[in-house]
Amino acid sequence: MLIENKVSGAFICGTTGEGMLMTVEERKAVAEEWIKYASDSFRLIVHIGANSYRDAQELGAHALQIGAYAVSTMGPMFLRPGKVEDLIRYCAEVMESTGDLPFYYYHIPGVAGVDFPMIEFLEKAESKLPALAGIKYTHNNLMDLQLCLKVSDNKWDILYGQDETLLAGLAFGVKGAVGSTYNYMAPLYHKMSEAFQKGDLEQAGFLQNLSARFVRHLIRFGGGVEGGKPLMRTIGLDCGPLRAPAHNISVGDYDEFLRLIQLEGIEHFMAMSRMR
After folding, report:
1. What are the DSSP E strand ranges found in 148-210?
2. 10 Å Cβ neighbour count for 39?
3. Among residues of the chain, what percentage have pLDDT more than 90?
4. Annotated catalytic residue 124
5. Please, where in the chain does CATH 3.20.20.70 lie?
6. Catalytic entry in 136, 182, 189, 229
7. CA distance 50 to 47
8. What CATH class is the domain 1-179?
9. From the centroid of its chain, how far is CA 2?
10. Number of other CB atoms surrounding residue 37 within 10 Å
């Protein structure tokens, strides 16, 4: 379905995929299923983060073995690193199992609670993490974002992680994005990116505003995971319920959510994404 919607890859077992609620063996099984669809035009980044770097190493070795394009990890949530150097040391331990696979640090302080300036991370990690490729940047610090994009002569691949402000990321120069709403609304973002590339900022802004209005409702109904997962049923792909402690929204709330989406005029883009 993602390939049909011209999505160029998948970041699996991350936040939307509830990776941290699965066992190591379950995460391996998910990766093994996804890798069947990998190609030069559809690349897989496997999130291998875990509180125990030993678990992350096991997942990293598995990702290397099955032929993933890259790996990624957020910072550990228990006994969070107190300074950037501690975070880099954690990443170095994880990297011992991943060979020369490109490594992306997953910066998502709203979930992981690990919040350092990523410009500082890149400057200090460059000599210590040889396989570091860039950052999956899911935060609203746009000053830090632009510094990361330009440091070391534009060396790093910064993947933008906030769907509702993607246009800002494009304006700063990001070349790729990873987000939850792309699963069921990819056509909207393709059209927005195309408008931006053509210099049609009015159309790009209109489409970004649609996205922002949608995300406003999404947050009301639980956010990208609790509100977003049920929407996959709407496009013909039932991903099942969420695991505890996540909250599964009621039928009534789901119907109200769909009603608001229809009022905003967003259902059209979801219909374009439907399973064919």
Report:
1. 157-160, 176-177
2. 10
3. 91
4. no
5. 1-179
6. 136
7. 9
8. alpha beta
9. 14
10. 12
Q: What is the tally of helices (H) and strands (E) in the chain?
A: 13, 7
Contact, 59 vs 95, CB < 8 A?
no
For 84-138, write each residue's pLDDT tens digit.
Answer: 999 999 999 999 999 999 999 999 999 999 999 999 999 999 999 999 999 999 9
Residue 189 designated active-site: no
Phi, psi of 205 (to 5 degrees): -65, -40
Digit-coded pLDDT (tens) for 205-216: 999 999 999 999
pLDDT digits (tens, 9 = 90+) for 205-258: 999 999 999 999 999 999 999 999 999 998 999 999 999 998 899 999 999 999
Query: Which element (helix H / strand E) includes 95?
Result: helix 84-95
The one catalytic residue among 106, 137, 184, 189: 106
Residue corresponding to tokens 């099984």: 29
Q: Contact, 104 vs 12, CB < 8 A?
A: no
Nearest Cα residue to 185 out of 203, 169, 207, 170: 207
Angstrom distance (rounded) from CA 161 to CA 106: 9
pTM above 0.90, yes or no: yes
